[in-house]
Write a structure and sequence with these properties.
InterPro entries: GH, GH_1_N_CS, Glyco_hydro_1. Keywords: Glycosidase, Hydrolase. Belongs to the glycosyl hydrolase 1 family. Its EC number is 3.2.1.21, 3.2.1.86. The protein is an alpha/beta fold. The protein has one domain: TIM Barrel. Helices cover 40% and strands 14% of the residues. The chain is built from 16 helices and 14 strands. Strands 1-2-3-4-5-7-11-12 form an 8-stranded parallel β-barrel, surrounded by 4 helices. Strands 6-8 form a two-stranded parallel ribbon. The protein has a two-stranded antiparallel ribbon with strand order 9-10. Strand 11, helix 15 and strand 12 form a beta-alpha-beta unit. The longest helix is centred in the middle third of the chain and has 26 residues. The protein starts with 7 loop residues before the first strand and ends in a 7-residue tail after the last helix.
């Protein structure tokens, strides 16, 4: 069968990891602007990497430095996007997934009028993308909520944030209704319990019951997503709204039924945020989990009606690795993954950051998601962080990256041949950027090398890697030539 003729090949970025310009043209502080580079913390210890306290936030607000706050500088995409979009066009991109920074439009989240400079910036970017034939796929919340809302309301724990987010989204829909067809509400919405501050603006050390706050934040995001889906369909006829899940594919460590059960439980909790957005209701097993854990979610009858009436049109997900589970963690060798710690599969290699490399797991994930949801799918993040070397003749020979993508594309195509309806694929990331979890530049994902180190030193000059030309050919042949 092969991929559909209009398959959306491209790449994915996030505003907070590329734009920089953190205090330019009226932008307010976001939760990403207080994330620090921690060179003395093990890159595999993601909990310490993403951890933040109220004191850390207060210190960051007073600090105008960008050296140890790398998401404030990014890769200067804010000023260099025309050049970078031209490079994406040269590769043949059909689509680019990107996010709109909430704090460029509403600096604190509570303004009544949007910041026109922020609206104009994205308008110019979308114009350039359409000039180059690149379809925007826009994420409305990608780990960059206003810091003011985190400090004032403890982020998404507070119901007031729903209306503020809906207002922001409606402004985006009305402003870009002729520019954007594909919208995603929350990036990796399942991540609230893994990094509550980054994902939901919850400050752990000013929270009495963290687990309660996290699941209340989930609920408020679900309601907001449903309201935003409704608004988008009303403002932009023919628009498509999707949810976005971190696909944390988990296998039993053995055939011991207890290991199978442990893995089932992990996968069930991973699926549940997408279940709510696709089916419009909470799964019974999750509701029972709340009851057993004495988690009381403030949800109204109106909330449940809104969820049921405004489900998403398609399902997107990130996939980087797989893990294994056991009823007894003493049976496991633990390793890290995409902001998670779990059992290491002895049959799979790992990257320098401890992430397992499992191409077949991508095929399994596609089959599982399509079988569960019966909705069109899109892979909106997949890639491998690695240390790249710029040679004396200004080349980057990254055969390891080509090998990674080739293996994953082969499995992706097999899933499509098995019947999966796949709309597109956007790699994470097409250009080197600041890592979400470790705030490093040296953890490089791109087909394009950016001359910048972990402390912000460098010319910011862009260089094509060997994988650039390889991916260009993959797109040209719609995946039929992977050599």
């Amino acid at each position: 069968m092969g991929l559909r003729k209009d398959f959306l090949w491209g790449g994915a970025i996030a505003a907070n990891q590329v734009e920089g310009a953190w205090n330019i043209d009226g932008k307010g502080l976001s939760v990403a602007d207080v994330a620090t580079y921690k060179p003395n913390v093990d890159v595999k210890d993601y909990r310490k990497q993403v951890g933040v306290t109220k004191s850390d936030i207060e210190k960051a607000i007073q600090d105008t430095d960008t050296k140890y706050y790398p998401k404030r500088r990014g890769i200067d995409f804010y000023h260099r996007y025309p050049e970078d979009l031209e490079l994406f066009h040269e590769m043949g991109f059909k689509a680019l997934r990107l996010s709109i920074a909430w704090t460029r439009i509403f600096p604190t989240g509570e303004e009544f009028e949007p910041n026109q400079a922020g609206l104009d910036y994205y308008k110019a970017m979308f114009n350039k993308m359409h000039e180059l034939g690149i379809e925007p796929i826009v994420t409305l919340s990608h780990y960059e909520m206003p810091l003011a809302l985190a400090s004032k309301y403890n982020g998404w724990e507070n119901r007031k944030v729903i209306d503020l987010f809906v207002r922001f989204c409606k402004v985006c829909f009305e402003t870009y209704k002729n520019d954007v067809k594909y919208w995603l509400t929350f990036n990796e919405i399942d991540s609230v319990t893994r990094h509550p501050f980054t994902s939901a603006g919850i400050i752990p050390d000013q929270t009495d019951n963290l687990l309660q706050a996290e699941y209340q934040a989930f609920h408020h995001q679900f309601v907001a997503s449903a309201l935003v889906t409704k608004s988008c369909h009303e403002v932009i006829p023919g628009s498509q709204v999707g949810c976005m899940l971190t696909k944390l594919t988990d296998y039993p460590n053995s055939s011991d039924p207890r290991d199978v059960l442990a893995s089932f439980n992990k996968n069930t909790m991973n699926y549940f945020p997408a279940d709510v957005q696709v089916f419009g209701e909470y799964p019974p097993l999750v509701l029972n989990y709340f009851k057993k854990q004495k988690i009381h979610i403030d949800m109204t009858a109106s909330d449940l009606e809104i969820l049921k009436e405004n489900t998403v049109d398609f399902v997107t997900f990130s996939y980087y690795m797989s893990l294994v589970s056991s009823y007894d963690e003493n049976n496991l060798t633990l390793t890290t993954g995409n902001t998670i710690v779990g059992g290491k599969n002895p049959h799979l290699p790992v990257t320098e950051w401890g992430w397992t490399v499992d191409p077949v797991g991508l095929r399994i994930s596609l089959l599982q998601l399509y079988d569960r949801y019966h909705k069109p799918l899109m892979i909106v993040e997949n890639g491998m962080g690695a240390k790249d070397e710029l040679t004396a003749d200004q080349k980057i020979h990254d055969d390891y990256r080509i090998k990674y993508f080739r293996a994953h594309f082969n499995e992706m195509i097999k899933a499509v041949d098995a019947g999966v309806d796949l709309l597109g694929y956007t790699s994470w990331a097409p250009i080197d950027l600041v890592s979400a979890s470790t705030s490093q530049m040296s953890k490089r994902y791109g087909f394009i090398y950016v001359d910048e180190d972990d402390l912000g030193n460098g010319s910011l000059k862009r260089y094509r890697k060997d994988s650039f030309t390889w991916y260009q050919k993959v797109i040209q042949t719609n995946g039929t030539s992977l050599d």
